Amino acid sequence: MKTQSYILRFSVLIITFIGMPLFLYFSGNFQKRTTLMETISIVTILGFSLLLSQFFTSRLNYKLMKKIRMVNVVAIHRFIGYLFISILIFHPFFIIIPKFFDNGVTPSDAFLRLITTFSSTGIILGLIAYASMLILMITAFFRFKLHLHYKTWRNLHGYLTLFFVIAATWHVVDMGRHSNMSFSIYYILMVAIGMFYLIRTNLFKTAKK
Amino acid sequence: MPIKSINGCIGCEECIKSCPTDVIRLNPDSKKAEILYPEDCQICHLCRMYCPVDAIVITPDKSIPVIVSWG
Amino acid sequence: MKTETNNLSRRKFIALAGGGVGFAAIAGLGMNIDWALNNPEIDADTILKNTINTDVLVVGGGMAGLFAAVKAHDAGAKVMLVSKGRLGASGQTPFAKGIFAYDKEKEKLSIDEFVAKVSRSALGTNNQTYTRQLAEHSLARVNELKEWGFFESSLYNKSFSKPIEERNIPMHERVTITHLIKEDDRVVGAAGFSIDEQKVLFYQAKSVILCTGAGGFKPNGFPICDLTHDGTVMAYNIGAKVTGKEWNDGHPARGENPAACYDGWGDMFEQKPSTTSIEVRHDLGVDMNYMAYMSGGVAQMGRPGMGKQENSVSGGPYRPEEFSSEKGQGGPSKDGEKDGKRPPRKDGEDRPPRKEGEDGPPGKEGKGGPPGMGGGVVGGSSAGMSIHKAEGLVPINDTCESTIPGLYAAGDALGSYMAGGIYTQIGSSLSGSAVQGAIAGETAAKYSKNIKAHSISASKLNAIEEDILAPLKKEAGYSPAWVTQTLQSIMIPNFIIYIKKENLMKAALAYVEELRDHHVPHLRASNLHELRLAHETKNMVISAEMKLRASLMRKESRCSHYRLDYPELDNENWQAWINIFKAEDGTMQLEKQPFNTWATVETNSKVEFNS
Ligand SMILES: Cc1cc2nc3c(=O)[nH]c(=O)nc-3n(C[C@H](O)[C@H](O)[C@H](O)COP(=O)(O)OP(=O)(O)OC[C@H]3O[C@@H](n4cnc5c(N)ncnc54)[C@H](O)[C@@H]3O)c2cc1C
Ligand code: SF4
Ligand code: SF4
């Protein structure tokens, strides 16, 4: 019974953060481009939804937490963390990969154009999100070298995440290739729920241990 | 329509400048490329090839408007 | 945004005077005239005016415009480049991938032999001076292009921008030039408008080089919908002589999705350019149109094992024996390349019917149309376009000078007859534009040194501004799209401009005159995009008239001009080009100019068209 329920919870997580985006991707009326481009798109979409899943594979999701041992939660959280970060860190480069396979705009020109189009809110948000993701990654990686109080660490990590997620989601909703209405609602919903958990945990439950 | 969709646009205006027949314009509010005059598209793919992020999809069909006696 | 109610529009119409009387009358009858209403998105009265001064004004940002600007600058002139579209991404230049370079180290033929061979294929229609000039200068231009990185990308804007930016040559892109300005019998500038900013632009220049390319009737299947012979018509309007309108480019398109230019050319637009060597052909005339006409609309090509199509229909356009398609004319045909306008490809996969023209089944190496398309083709994909370099302004010498002092033209905008009335040397269109652009640039710079700047009179500026903005100010009128479509249905049928006959051309001419006199003056535009369309439409109608009149006048068949009622070559009467000009009284006049003579500013044996 106990194992079953946490398998169930995991299935819910997988369905919500892998099944759902894939469903939205295939059911959305998107113009298909080359296989390479579409594969890159799917990987990126999953990278982002995994990021959103992070809210729910942490201490915030105490229901899940109660069912499995804390070390496992941390391990899962860390694994997914590194997974999505390693996808999203390449995201700006993924976009220009097709340029290696044609004779037109060179990959470097395309990349330069991409990261210097400052007239676009989406690009600015993307740059901010990217930078905060790097900070998030570095601080997580060196967490123990920082010699922070657990609570300070948790707040830092939490608020940084909040900032990152808002910038990233806004960026995705604003310029995502596949950000149609259903995708946007899905993203915003997930972020809203996640934020609710995060804020509740950090603000109201800090006293509780 | 020949030029079909623009998704994932970063608003760099490359396609707008490169379209010989002025089909695409920048939407002043969203700051993104917008297909404004698709009936003038000559299906040459220059816009797509100049786009740094492959945001443009073009199909080979063209719905030619019917002929009427005045218009 | 036709939100206006009928009442409102009726009131508006009844208030109309002059040109609107007809419409007002209709409205008065209670007829709904919403279709004709102009709903301007911009106020024509708030449009700004700008005047720019320069020595040499280069109009057009293709291959010819690039070299004209660079060479005029290097010859010491202050240069300004204006283009309707983007540098290297407008006109025909972006789609051309094979460029001819005559390298005397590598070629077996001498330049004399080359010129002679082109003349044989062109049946004398080529101007030998310009053919020779092409061979002499092509390698130097190609080497410059190489330096700028031209051969490294399928897209040309970057390599074209390099020399322009290095020299700091000012450039206006997305500006459509509509008028050339002539005062004291010489060119003193040009005028046009921007499609991005609400601005009318006047360019005061000591000389103007038209590198505006060729044009067509915005046909389906050939990427020339931004070209409407603007340069030719502007020059004609100020009295220049123009030529070459009776010839035809016979490009076919795929039967399926004929409008898809990109798809019709396989992946050629994605290829990097490369050079071609001597290969003189007799291509892209109207053989295929003839075949389709005689066999009831069926034209097939590109299928291996289809048999020789041209043998199934006898007669038709004359092709000199030496250049018959069976004979791998003039040099090895690379990779079975029939059009040669494409660089050789590494693989031998499907090739769509693209430049094969009348060559019949190109698949001598077993290559045909792509699977599923069955080789079915339709004609008229480039309708309204003549042969590159055969149509355009008439030069009076070998330096691209027109019949009007200070006005030059180069490339597809110059009727230099470099290749003749049929496609001869492969890849020469692109290098010809480069070669002529450079020469025109140098000549115009030299000319400008001895000319004082001229201030265009205010009355002239005002009149031109009125003319430019007129469609925006129309309360009602015809949409450019509809007039264009009507013109297309008059001109594009195979039995009008391809397989020509006197009675049908006269009939078509009557229609075209109707458009000219009663529809063009009522063209409306509600925004700058439509304003450009309106001016383009106007030019297309004039071009159509030129095409019909010249075709009616040439009572013989030669190269890409085919008359069903005069199917033979007539060397006795027709070793001559046809020049077209506007007479004092505003009518269109035509004259003969013997092959290999230079045009004079005066009119030759004037032949009036009897209609
Ligand atoms: C699909 C295709 C394939 C081809 N392949 C080959 C090939 O392989 N080899 C070859 O040699 N040739 C080829 N050609 C022909 C070749 O492209 C042209 O002959 C050549 O590029 C003409 O160059 P140009 O500079 O004279 O004119 P264009 O390149 O046509 O340039 C005209 C310029 O003038 C501008 N312009 C026009 N009107 C106005 C106006 N009113 N105001 C301001 N600017 C204006 C346009 O924006 C454009 O920049 C091909 C053509 C096509 C369409
Ligand atoms: S395909 Fe060509 S004509 Fe159509 S929108 Fe793109 S650039 Fe413009
Ligand atoms: S080129 Fe691409 S990214 Fe740039 S404006 Fe056009 S569609 Fe958007």
Automatic annotation (TrEMBL), chain A:
Keywords linked to the UniProt accession: Membrane, Transmembrane, Transmembrane helix
A GO cellular component term found in this entry reads: membrane
Taxonomically, the superkingdom here is: Bacteria
How would you describe this protein's topology in the membrane?
Answer: Multi-pass membrane protein
Q: Where in the cell is it found?
A: Membrane
Enumerate the spans annotated as Ferric oxidoreductase domain. 45-167
Q: Does the keyword Heme apply?
A: no
InterPro entries with a match to the protein in the record: Fe3_Rdtase_TM_dom (IPR013130)
**Name by which UniProt lists this protein:** Ferric reductase like protein
Give the transmembrane region(s).
7-27, 39-58, 79-101, 121-144, 156-173, 185-203
UniProtKB/TrEMBL annotation, chain B:
What SUPFAM superfamilies does the record point to?
A: 4Fe-4S ferredoxins
Supply the Gene3D superfamilies for this chain.
3.30.70.20
- Does this entry carry the keyword Lipid biosynthesis? no
Matching entries from InterPro entries are given as: 4Fe4S_Fe-S-bd, 4Fe4S_Fe_S_CS, Fe-S_Ferredoxin
Q: Where is the 4Fe-4S ferredoxin-type domain?
A: 1-29, 31-61
List the keywords (alphabetical).
4Fe-4S, Iron, Iron-sulfur, Metal-binding
Pfam families registered for this protein in UniProt: Fer4_7
Q: Does the keyword Metal-binding apply?
A: yes
MF GO annotations: 4 iron, 4 sulfur cluster binding; metal ion binding
Origin: domain of life: Bacteria
Q: Which named protein is this?
A: 4Fe-4S dicluster protein
Q: Whose protein is this, by species?
A: Mariniflexile fucanivorans
Automatic annotation (TrEMBL), chain C:
Query: Which residue ranges does UniProt annotate as crossing the membrane?
Result: 12-31
Taxonomic classification: Bacteria, Pseudomonadati, Bacteroidota, Flavobacteriia, Flavobacteriales
This one is known as Succinate dehydrogenase/fumarate reductase flavoprotein subunit
Start and end residues of each FAD-dependent oxidoreductase 2 FAD-binding domain? 55-150
Q: Which UniProt keywords apply?
A: Flavoprotein, Membrane, Oxidoreductase, Transmembrane, Transmembrane helix
**GO biological processes:** anaerobic respiration
Q: Which PROSITE patterns match?
A: TAT (PS51318)
This protein's source sits in the domain of life called: Bacteria
